[in-house]
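re: that chain from earlier
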Amino acid sequence: MQYELIRLKNELGITFIYVTHDQEEALTMSDTIVVMNQGYIQQIGTPESIYNEPENAFVADFIGDSNIIDSVMIRDKLVSFLGKKWDCVDTGFGENKPVDVVIRPEDVILKEEGAGTLDGVVSHLIFKGVHYEMEVMAGGFEWLVHSTSMFPVGTKISISVDPFNIQIMNKPESEDEEAVRIEE
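^ sequence. v structure.
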């Protein structure tokens, strides 16, 4: 049905509004997505920008699986979380500012123990067909990881993340702020 709706929209050259709670469907069918929470717009953008650069923790969690980690932006292009300093590409957040970091499960790189930034252990493993979904306890945080490589439960491994895949988000100053804030 998704292909048929896209074909029909393109063939007729029309704009239509499609309301769904199915995130995959929204990413697949949309030119522009509007993410709402409690009646307030959280973010407007292309499927790629919404998924890869969420404005806040709600959007990151709502559109796909995410590892959302309390962090401190030390300075431009350097963030600290889980007791380690990580290079990133983000700038303009200020120095020593509390932020949220979002890392998608498919962006977590698993290596041999000691070869990455954080050592951990695989605590859960599920085969999903296209990939394995694992939970990895590392740095006192339970990471959700998607990988085409399988690591059995109990395997000691190491985690790395490419700086480009560490997304920095401002922390809301209050719970209410997250429900109403959007840059205009």
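The chain is about 20% helix and 40% strand.
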